[in-house]
Amino acid sequence: MERIFIARITQAQYDVAHASFSAAHEMLDLPLLGTVDMERTLRNARSIAVLGIKPESRRDLDAHQIPLYLQKVGYHILPVPTRYPEATRILGVPVRRRLIELPAPIDVLNVFCKPEEFALHVEDALVLRPPLVWFQSGLLELSAARRLLDAGIPVAEDCIGCRRASMWPSIEPFEAQRSAAGSRTP
């Protein structure tokens, strides 16, 4: 059984870190998605393509642990590794090598690769036109983000796993959470 590692931080610590990212984005004049919209997206999303996902051989890295966590809580993960040509399946799902090879539609494109690696995939992202491109914290590529925003594609930057965990800390899948909470959603 795989263990899932999610950082244990307080909500206050998370809010301080998120506020500093938000302030930096405002200085750069990047209209990124806010917390309310990110959480709404996560409540409604079912499929998340992960660009830069790491295979099981690198299970100790966040780029494997966070997609694994998201899969465990009910999202359909579509792996698009930027390295590891030997990987044919990650998290039990066939890998794609390019974003334009993904089955449509996807709900979120989660970018888990270095900014210089994403620059090689921005054209595919523009063709794919996902409803949201979500960069992991610290991985925002500014010129690509501007191109996506100019094309009308919303952009977010935050740890998608931490944001999901802060909304609904249980790691039970969505459907079990909905049943337990009645009409409330995660």
UniProtKB/TrEMBL annotation:
Highest taxon listed in the record's lineage: Bacteria
InterPro entries per record: CoA-bd, NAD(P)-bd_dom_sf
Domain CoA-binding: 42-139
This protein's name: CoA-binding domain-containing protein
